[in-house]
Amino acid sequence: MTADFAPHRPVPTRAEIVAAARAWIGTPYRHQASLKGAGCDCLGLVRGLWREFYGDEPEPIPPYAPDWAEASRLETMIEAGRRHLAPVPLVEARPGDVVLFRWRADLPAKHAGVLVAADRFVHAYDGTAVVESPLGAWWRRRLAAAFAFPGVGDDPSA
Asked: How far apart are CA 98 and CA 117, in angstroms?
């Protein structure tokens, strides 16, 4: 996690993160975008939440193709999570945490969402929009990592 982050407001609560993620629902899916109401992809949703609570994004995001994970075979999203967020064991993930998914067991994680309940998450769904989905068996099998936003890990409010 970035040691020198300085939120531009008090550290958010889990409830604030959940409410902010839900405020993106209906935002159209747009590859590489990150603007609430106008368009975003799954990473763009997480980037938008970062900006809302912490200010400037911690690092620039280079352009990426839709098949970037398949082509690179690198754990780019998990490594970025480790640099800027606090790793959470999957069994301890709580509402307000970022969750990452693998489409297949042999591929790097390439989809992100935000838990909004123990069994629900918000994510930008390719071809549609930002939606709230059940975290059912299909999604649970694909969970790869979970992270808390900086300073939020010990929040007792959720």
From this structure: 12
C-alpha count within 13 angstroms, C-beta hemisphere, residue 136: 4
Give the HSE-up count for residue 111: Cα atoms under 13 Å, Cβ half-sphere.
16
Encode pLDDT of 92-131 as tens digits.
999 999 999 999 999 999 999 999 999 999 999 999 999 9
115-146 core/surface letters (b: 16 or more CB in 10 A; e: else): bbeeebbbbbeeeebbbbeebeeebeebbbbb
Model confidence, pTM: 0.90
Domain ranges of the chain: 14-148
Q: How far apart (Å, rounded) are the C-alpha atoms in residues 65 and 46?
A: 18
Question: What is the C-alpha separation between 17 and 95, in angstroms, rounded?
Answer: 8
**Burial classification of residue 14, based on how many CB atoms lie within 10 Å of its CB (0-12 exposed, 13-18 middle, 19 or more buried):** buried
Contact status, residue 142 vs residue 154, Cβ threshold 8 Å: no
Give DSSP secondary structure letters for 138-149.
HHHTTEEEEEEP
For the structural domain made of 14-148, what CATH number should be given?
A: 3.90.1720.10
- What span, in angstroms and rounded, lies between the C-alpha atoms of 129 and 26? 5
